[in-house]
UniProtKB/TrEMBL annotation:
InterPro entries per record: Acyl-CoA_hotdog, Acyl_CoA_thio, HotDog_dom_sf, TesB_ACOT8-like_N, TesB_C
The protein's name: Acyl-CoA thioesterase II
Coiled coil (UniProt feature): none
Keywords in alphabetical order: Hydrolase
Residue stretches making up the Acyl-CoA thioesterase 2 C-terminal domain: 173-280
Length: 287
């Protein structure tokens, strides 16, 4: 694939087929593990819900549960339930099915643009993303099938502030990390699509703080990891095709589950979103 091809492939997968006023169908991108990528089906569910909202209402929050692994070769049917359309807010529930089995259940709320209190936490100091090494460039030099697949299908440019977890653990015992992220293509001005792209992108990062604190990396032998649930709040408009800084941490991990959180800032310091995700993280018992 060329640099633009992964981004184009993602755009194509997020272009849902509308069957009726509340039903949509989507396809899946290839994955080495043979399962549907969670960020993809979550983004598709948000787009399906957004297509049923009154004009001018953008999603401000989302809460989803991943119920089953999805198969790559089976279309995903997205069924939207219109829970409420109030004067300012609209609520939607979306179930994603393959056959008669649900693989995702999500509820989202959208709001008209309205005035109100405007305050935020400041963005921490971070180096300019253009001064950092791109994960795509770094991994493209590695002769390994996983690295080759990832770099050939990466729709986003990922740049860690400090060490990444691709080639080894951090060994500092610290759960904090910062990552710059930007789509490898240009989007229009559709804010719903930008928010869907943000969901797609962040799912690959959200559990890294848990791994970082546990001295794990993506190459840890026997590592088993899967998203369980995902919550996201959009505070302000954002562009997924411009640099976004994910400021991440992990408050807790136990019982084979770990919780990751993130605040997302535009490059000018505007806080655009907050995210939380719990996932299953298991490693072989070597005792």
């Amino acid at each position: 694939m060329t640099d633009a091809a992964p981004f184009t492939a993602l755009r194509d997968v997020l272009a849902l087929e509308q069957v009726d006023e509340n039903t949509f169908v989507g396809q899946s991108l290839p994955q080495l593990n043979g399962r549907v990528y969670g960020g993809q089906v979550l983004a598709q569910a948000l787009l399906a819900a957004g297509a049923t909202n009154p004009a001018g209402r953008q999603p401000h929050s989302l809460h989803g549960y991943f119920l089953r692994p999805g198969a790559l070769d089976i279309p995903i049917r997205l069924e939207v339930e219109r829970l409420r359309d109030g004067r300012s807010f609209s609520a939607r529930r979306v179930h994603a099915f393959q056959g008669d089995k649900a693989i995702l259940s999500m509820i989202t709320s959208a709001q008209e643009d309205q005035p109100g209190i405007d305050q935020q936490q400041p963005m921490p100091a971070a180096p300019d993303p253009e001064t950092l090494e791109s994960a795509v460039a770094k991994l493209s030099t590695i002769e390994h099938p996983v690295a080759k697949f990832w770099t050939s299908t990466a729709a986003f440019d990922v740049r860690h502030v400090g060490s990444s977890l691709y080639l080894g653990p951090d060994r500092n015992g610290d759960d904090r990390q910062m990552v710059w992220l930007r789509a490898r293509g240009t989007l229009g001005d559709d804010q719903l699509m930008h928010r869907a792209m943000m969901i797609y992108a962040c799912d690959q990062l959200m559990l890294e703080p848990v791994m970082r604190r546990a001295d794990l990396d993506w190459g840890t032998r026997g590592l088993s990891i899967a998203s369980l649930d995902h919550a996201m709040w959009w505070h302000r408009d954002a562009r997924a095709d411009e640099w976004l800084l994910y400021v991440q941490s992990s408050p807790s991990a136990q019982g084979g589950r770990g919780l990751g959180s993130a605040r997302v800032f535009a490059q000018d310091g505007t806080l655009v979103a907050s995210i939380a995700q719990e996932g299953m993280i298991r490693v072989p018992d070597e005792s």
